[in-house]
């Protein structure tokens, strides 16, 4: 079964940086669209960004709230996904999920990691 | 961005009750809608995709309907293990957007 395992969360001061990692197993990362989704404590789900697959040139898209601060990248040799977060704000505190959320109306490839907690606080 | 308005935000029902949650999109999303179940401390799990398709392995008491802007999620007979928060999510266009969630409790 597909497995996604995030790491790299922790406590960081406002204005600081952090890099999250997501290790994929039992599927080939380069074949799939990959997303980051976050959930602030006690709140709902917020999509952060996406990197498309190799066939779509790994293009990226971001939510307005993180654009120009967050960067999604991949290392296909390690079958891993990354989220570089700069200029962190207190409102970025959340559990960050690595996910593959590509569905059509007739098929769905929808897998999530267990999440990693990021706390932005002084 | 497409806004997803989900209601109610919480509900309490008895075991065996029929439970219905609605989700309204701010513009036409066709059938590009998922429904998720999230239990405390866990990642969301997709139950329904394409508005009405049951994900493999999901019990048949869960169902979804609707298209365009108005969607419905139903649990035909609520079970104790269904206690969770449920979210709708559109994937017609980026950014992906989620409803605010419905917390389902047992009365």
Give a verbal description of the structure.
The complex is a heterodimer of chains A (122) and B (107). Chain A is mostly beta strands. In chain A, 0% of the residues lie in helices and 52% in strands. In chain A, strands 2, 4, 5, 6, 9, 10 and 11 form a seven-stranded mixed beta sheet that branches. A four-stranded antiparallel beta sheet of chain A has the order 1-3-8-7, with no helix packed on it. In chain A, a hairpin with a 4-residue loop joins strand 7 and strand 8 (80-85). The N and C termini of chain A lie far apart (40 Å). The mean pLDDT of chain A is 96. With 107 residues, chain B is an all-beta fold. Helices cover 0% and strands 50% of the residues of chain B. Chain A binds chain B through residues 35, 37, 44-47, 50, 61, 63-64, 97, 99, 101, 103-108, 110, 112-115, and chain B through 1, 30-32, 34, 36, 38, 42-46, 49-51, 53, 55, 87, 89, 91, 94-101.
Helices and strands of chain B, in order, run as EEEEEEEEEEE
Content-based structural category of chain A: mainly beta
Largest contact between protein chains? A-B, 24 and 28 residues
Mean pLDDT of chain A: 96
Order of helices and strands of chain A: EEEEEEEEEEE
Number of helices of chain A: 0
Quick description:
The complex is a heterodimer of chains A (122) and B (107). By secondary structure, chain A is an all-beta fold. Chain A is built from no helices and 11 strands.
